[in-house]
Design goal:
Layout (H helix, E strand, L loop, with lengths): L2 H20 L2 H15 L10 H21 L21 H11 L2 H12 L4 H8 L3 H16 L5 H16 L2 H7 E9 L11 E3 L1 H8 L3 H4 L2 E6 L2 E8 L2 E11 L2 E9 L2
Parallel strand pairs: 1-6
Antiparallel strand pairs: 1-2, 3-4, 4-5, 5-6
Helix pairs in contact: 1-2, 1-3, 2-3, 3-5, 3-6, 5-6, 5-7, 6-7, 8-9
GO biological process, one term: DNA-templated transcription initiation
Pfam family, one: Sigma70_r4_2
Protein name: Putative RNA polymerase sigma factor
Length: 260
Amino acid sequence: MQLTAVFEENRGHLTAVARRILGSVHDAEDAVQQSWLKAAGADLGSIDNVPGWLTTLVARVCLDMLRQRRFHVPLDESISWDDRRDDVAGDVASALPLLMDLLSPGQRVAFVLHDVFGFPFADIAAAIGTTPAAAKQLASRARRAVRGAPAGPADRALAEAFLAASRDGDIPGLLQVLAPGVVRRVDTILVPSGVRTEVRGAGEVAEETRSFTERARAGAVVEFDGAPVIVLTAEGRVRIRIRLTFGVGGITGIDIRAVR
C-alpha cells in the first residue's frame, strides 16, 4: 500500500476534519501538509486502519496548532477589529464558529471528532493524549457549552442592551443596564498602561466603556454554557470574551479576558 495514494484518496476528508477543528481553510491546509510530512516514511504494514490513523494524526496536529494559537495572539494597537453591527442576532450558524473559539483545545478536538465525524472515544483519546473516559468528558462539556440550555431572556436582553450602548458610547443607555455597584475587571494586556484593571461603580464603568467603542463594534452576544457572553472578534476569530454577572439592579459584574 502506497502512502501517497492513500493520503491523496483521503485528503478531502482530512481537510474537512482540520477545517472544522481550526475554523479556517488556510490553517486546515497547513495542518494537512504538516501531517503529510509527519506521516512520510511510516510503515503502513503495521497499521490496521490507515485512514483512521491519518485522521488521528491530523487531529493531533490541529490540537498542537490550537495550543500554539492561544499563546501567540497579538492584541496590540495595530489589530484590525471586525465590524459586527450588522450581524443577525441569534443566528446559530454564524454563532457556532465563535463558540468554538471559547472552548479549550482539547474540548474543541473531542467535540468535532465525536459529534461531527462520529469517531469513537478510544480514537479521540489517542489523538488528544488522554483516556477514553476523559475524552468523553471533554466532548460532553463542549456539547453543553455550545448546545446546552438557552440563557434567560432577561439576561440576554441586558447583554444586548449593554453591547448596543457600548458601541454608541451611550452613557444613559449604559447606566440603565448597569447596577449601581457594578465591578469591571479586565486583563492587563487588554488595556493601555495606566488604565485600572478594576473599576467600581456604574458611573465610572460607563464613562470608561465609552473609550472603547471601536472594540465594542466588533462584539456579538452569543450563548455559551447557558449564559450570554459578549465576544469581540478580529479577522473572524474571537480575541476577547466578556462574561457578565446579573443581579439586583442589572449587570453587577463585567469580566473581560483575552482568548489566548
